[in-house]
Amino acid sequence: MTTPADVHDVRDPELPGRLLSAERDVLVPLLRARTDADFALSTLACPGWTVRDVLAHCSAALTRVVESRFEKGVFSPESNDRDIAERARWTNAQVVDELERGMTEAGPVIAKAGGALDVLALGEWVHAGDVREVLGEPGAYAGAGLPDALALLAHVTREKEHLSLHADLDDLDEPLRLGAVAGDGPPARYIGDAPTLVRLYSGRPVSGAAYELAGVREGELNIFG
Questions:
Q1: Diameter over CA atoms, the chain
Q2: 186: helix, strand or coil
């Protein structure tokens, strides 16, 4: 896995698109094989939203990127709700079609944005994990895209000057450093698996997970809160 400790020091403009493409190739066939009843299931990570709502939000966000539609208040809770409502009469297949198009075409646009939209690709990957978890698929926040997701998480937290954290991951041979360069004091410390780290940074439930966290509270890690 290509995730060295300081991988987040240099931006890879192709990374967000690569993550989206890899997820598209796994998620879209899975969704096309599911029944309408599966799309109506309630999600755990996004209270009040069904699987379909999460997918509609994701497809709408990516379409906005592809079409460069960023009006005032875009990606706010109110804007997200409007995007979902606009697709209320669509079939589930139409939502998946839009999602597939977005995951295919948004990468080059994100690459040219200089980093401003990188976190959106990471959010899309996390939402795919939300959906996989509800559908009972294994490895909700893992899979083939995990190395790229970790690299993108490291870069995003560095750019946001998030708190400094040193992660010793069961899944990697080398530690992963996230957030800003540590100041006078030592960085926070995480010991555990990579999917649980992703859950912590995205504000997802970690009930029952075995991990150690020192120097920071769980809620302080959430970059989407």
A1: 55
A2: coil
